[in-house]
Design brief:
Blueprint (H helix, E strand, L loop, with lengths): L13 H6 L7 H30 L8 H25 L4 H23 L3 H4 L3 H10 L7 H5 L1 H29 L2 H15 L1 H18 L7 H30 L22 H9 L2 H31 L3 H32 L2 H5 L1 H20 L7 E2 L2 E2 H32 L4 H34 L9 H46 L5 H5 L1
Antiparallel strand pairs: 1-2
Helix pairs in contact: 2-8, 2-9, 2-10, 2-11, 2-14, 3-8, 3-18, 4-8, 4-11, 8-18, 9-14, 9-17, 10-11, 10-14, 12-18, 13-16, 13-17, 13-18, 13-19, 14-17, 16-17, 16-19
Amino acid sequence: MTVKTDKGDSAFKGLRGILWPIHGFELKKFLPMGLMMMCILFNYTILRDTKDTLVVNAPGGGAECLSFLKLYGVTPAAILFMIVFIKLANVFNREKLFYIVLTPFLAFFAAFAFVIYPNKEALHMSVTAIQSAQAAMPNLHWLIPVVGNWSFAIFYILSELWGSVVLSMLFWQFANEITKVTEAKRFYGLFGMLGNVGLLLSGPTIIMTGMYAKTLPQEVDAFGTNLKLLMSAVLVSGLVLLATYRWMNKNVLTDPQLYQPGQGKKKEKAKLSVMESFRYILKNPYLGLIAVLVLSYGVAINLVEGVWKGQVKIAFPDMNDYNVFMGQFSTWTGAITILLMLVGNNILRKLSWTKAAVITPIMVLATSAVFFFFVWNGNKVSPFTPLLGTTVVMVAVIVGQIQNVLSKGTKYSLFDSTKQMAYIPLDPEAKVKGQGAVEVIGGRAGKSGGAFIQSTLLALIGGSVSLASLTYILGPLVCVICLVWIFAVGGLGRKFNALVASKEAEKAAEEKAAEKEPAPTTAGAAS
């Protein structure tokens, strides 16, 4: 069978080159990967919006609880998961590892909606007990609701890990293994564009289930019904994801036109232990710079989101109203992201890696500065004071929504793609274990870094102080973090270009040597 080679951008002209630079024979590989990413982001969006609704509106809770939960719940869970993942990676092959990691997530989300949440009154602390503990320990005012509503906390933790584990690790490790650099320049931006159809589908799903729940009789637990519908959608999407991955392994990875295992690979190194993996990452400045990018995004976006979600709770105190608003936010995020994907995919192909990667920190810096300015000015008056035809709090909510949509749009369209491209030139060990540690630990450390800052300030001040009142500290801090992020992009860009050039020179030398090597003679073969 003749194996077709990748022709890169040269085969595509005009509008086709802008919108759909995919060869016909590549659709068998490209479309299932796009479907997988769509299912992952569909679930990610529903879980993200639902977890926030649960914790922010929990008895005694608020947006301020999120920083404590991320620091003392999500971060230890991420570290524990990474240790277990590395152990499992040494025992199971890639395909079995995918099933083993994904199945428990889906099982818990189904159990939460149909078993745990309906019995929350018997499982959680009462509102009176939470309020009494808050009065007795004012410095732990926002941590107590996290403990008191412990099943919500577990749901939040696993929902947070879904993005890091299933998207950043399982999907992108699979994509990096079966995709060449020349394909990635054309594929990765479009993966994100197709994947963000999941946001367009999840937003209306959240809105419709929330609106339906509000029509139910008062004696029915409206949000409980809403939760069952949403988790059913998550379960169906997860099963489609598993089936598509299985189909890829049976029909795509066995096709030499689309995948050649081991082609151009060097002799595989021995697998590292957990501690050896940590030391390997710490000694690798290339992985260190990728970690700085992940950390910077996590800290910056967490500091902004904590303040914004506090404003959203003031504007929408009802759980279903809160969830419907977040569904609308997700719909706008998906629509804007797809538009940015069209632009971003061409930026990846036309501009250098560095120029494409630096757009995200610049966007986060500019939009965050505007948001903090509005919140800081709004703190001087009542949240419901009229402003621009609405109220002060709604202006802050809308500006924050714009900030989040634009930041996430550039993140999905450019940050994720350029970050994943940076892993491709690495050796197999760094791709699997190095990427795993950077994504799970780096991603969680980024969010926990922001959570540490917020929770420390809240604990030191004590009582029911809000994050919005701390914008004079958080705003300038986000600006500094974005500047560090920009400098890290420059350093990583230089290393990435040098590594790609080295790999290409090495490949060219091998091909030249193979051309000069004489064919074996009949006599030589007989001897």
